[in-house]
Amino acid sequence: MPKIIYRFPDDSTRTVEAAPGTSVMEAALANGVEGIVAECGGAAMCATCHVYVGSRHLTAAPPMSEDEDVMLDMAYAPRAADSRLSCQLFMSPELDGMEVRLPERQRED
Fold this sequence. Notes:
Elements: E1 3-7, E2 13-17, H1 24-30, E3 50-53, H2 55-58, H3 66-72, E4 83-85, E5 98-101
Parallel strand pairs: 1-5
Antiparallel strand pairs: 1-2, 3-4, 3-5
């Protein structure tokens, strides 16, 4: 099964296996990975699952939709060239070992 490496702001990591077709957000929630809020449940409507994708897998990831692009402009953490919504990244063999960095915060509390 493909693996996702979640890198936390303190530079620690957690590796999770995810079946193909599972989103990076769904895998985080199912495995209790802290730092993915996912207020909208994966509809690309809130940007609380914002991650930064490692360069090795950024080009292998599916193209960004217009909705995702708009939502990333509204993310609490600064947007960067490697920003993606984890609800829009679906695991596949090509993404095995993908590392995603989590921002310090997903929203203002």
